[in-house]
Amino acid sequence: MKLPKTSNDDSLELKMTPMIDVVFLLLVFFVWTSSFELPEFDLPGSLAELPMGAAEASSDTPPVEKFDEIIIRLLWQVEGTQIMLNGQNIDRMSELKDRLAEITSLGVQPPVIVDPDEKVTMAFAVQAYDAARSAGVDRVLFAAKPE
Q1: What is 70-142's CATH number?
Q2: Domain boundaries in the chain?
Q3: pTM over 0.85
Q4: Is the pLDDT of residue 22 over 90?
């Protein structure tokens, strides 16, 4: 009597390379199609309307004025550097700080752009930056000149 063979020469072979390729392609697909920005509906908007009863109660408070951006121009002159805040002449850095503090006390945080002339020293531009930061402004930027 012949005994059956116990070893199986036709063993099942599992190939890992195609499976790794598929997993990598799925990973690349999901990374490319995902969005890392906040959805627009989660951001606060100014288009929301107050309920009917709340509009009568809050009519005594003035509405908050919207600011797009505040530009601080530092103009070099022979007699000294001139400070311009959105086109208005400012005499001292302390006055600049006070005006920016008044704007931030309204509850708005517009970006402040410091735009110095080429001949204005970096120390004076940094003083304007420090005045804006000490007034409570969150975003203070420097203007870049195209070459």
Answers
A1: 3.30.420.270
A2: 70-142
A3: no
A4: yes
